[in-house]
Specification:
Helix content: 55-70%
Strand content: under 5%
Number of strands: 0
Distance between the termini: 36 Å
Number of helices: 4
Radius of gyration: 13 Å
Structural class: mainly alpha
Largest sheet: none
Order of helices and strands: HHHH
Amino acid sequence: AYAHGGYPEVLRMEVQDKLRRRAAGEFVDAMSLADFYAMMGQTDKTLEWLQKAYQERSSGMIYLSVSPDLQPLKANPEFVRLLDTLHLSH
């Protein structure tokens, strides 16, 4: 995948695999999907999966304010509300 489409293709394939596994009933942490979408620069999908991670009480939520992949969202009002809901600094 990397040779064919570079890093973006690898990320896309990882997301597809995680979505397929999740649809099959396997546990796939919603936070991991949010991270992959963030790395791909897909803000809407990132926020969607962050909301799912919150609803599912993902343990990865404690890293929201310090995750390097999520730094571009620091100015996004929806992301800031989520940080506030979790009482995390921003």
